[in-house]
Amino acid sequence: MPLPASFPELASLDLFVSVVELGSVSRAAAAHGVSQPSASSRIKHLERQLGMRLLDRGPSGSLPTDAGVVVAGWAETILRAAHELEAGLSAFQAAQAGRLRIVASFTIAEYLLPQWLDRFSRDHPRDSIALEVANSTTVIDRLRHGAADLGFIETPSELDGLDEAIVGNDELVTVVAPSHPWATPRTVPVEALAATPLVMREAGSGTRAALAAALRDLGLGEPSAVLELGSTSAVRAAVVHGNSPTVISRLAVAAEVAAGQLVEIDVPGLSVARHLRAVWPAGTALPSLARELLDDIR
Q1: pTM of the model
Q2: How many Å apart are CA 91 and CA 86, to the nearest integer?
Q3: Do 286 and 162 fall within a single domain?
Q4: How many angstroms separate the CA atoms of 287 and 143, rounded?
Q5: Which long-range contacts link 109-115 to residues 24+ away (Cβ below 8 Å)?
Q6: Which residues span the domain enclosing 43?
Q7: How many domains does the chain have?
Q8: Are 106 and 283 within 8 A, CB to CB?
Q9: Angle at 71 between CA 243 and CA 173, to 5 degrees
Q10: 270 phi and psi angles, rounded to 5 deg
């Protein structure tokens, strides 16, 4: 069915998400190549369209309101789909020698694949790569249905019907905003963490599955969520600007911890190290481009 005429433009949602990620309208405007007055006007128009205030503006920058954090998470889902459409159209239109279809979970797609694919693309200028970003459960489903040639996941689950290769290692860390009560002692018992509602990814994400498995191994219950969001960057932003903890990939928050925007909390007894894996349908030969990419990564 047609979208309503009041539905916001993708460009405005993209600009708003950049403001949330970068912390100010001026930095977002520079990233999008528009003037600050133009960016401010577009954000205000978006707020009028949605009928809610999305940003708290101050002399040191702009922070998302509670509504803004939620809208940013939803907008990221739409923008990912738009980027996937763009990538698919570009790959379809390009008269190139080969095409590699990759589907990857969020942490790998955001923090590792860009550098891997940049290097690989320079060595394969006539080949095309289509990248889809999804949670680990969806990655596995896409591979089993023949919708991708190669996948990358973070989930610790055993995988029936898929072959795998380890391409990296990661660990989950507990982080809070500097204003959170845990930030002063910088340590908390694992029982307190397990009893505290967290900002979390949605069910099906590898990060959430890894934390749940670690707590089960300690005889503790499933983690509960105060807020569920659809991407790693949305979770990170919600914790930076909120008052709830999260357990998240160290790769995703290294810059914020170094800058003092987040504080890493020691949780004695909780260790969530995980392998990052490439996966593909078992019993099938990997396409030559997929094999070359794996050889290049490893």
Answers
A1: 0.62
A2: 9
A3: yes
A4: 13
A5: 109/133, 109/152, 110/232, 110/233, 110/252, 111/249, 111/251, 111/252, 112/152, 112/167, 112/168, 112/251, 112/276, 113/152
A6: 10-68
A7: 3
A8: no
A9: 40
A10: -110, 115
| 115-127 tens-digit pLDDT | 999 999 998 888 8
Residue type, 77: T
Question: What dihedral angle (degrees, nearest 10) is formed by the CA atoms of 123, 287, 148, 250?
Answer: -50
Residue type present at position 233:
S
Separation between Cα atoms, residue 288 and residue 298, nearest integer Å: 15
Helices (H) and strands (E) in the chain, counts: 12, 11
- CATH code for the domain of 127: 3.40.190.10
245-261 pLDDT, tens digit per residue, is: 999 999 999 999 999 99
Single-letter residue type at 252: A
- Retrieve residue 154's tokens: 């973070």
Q: What angle do CA 195, 234, 221 make, to 5 degrees?
A: 20
Question: How is residue 190 written in tokens?
Answer: 């694992």
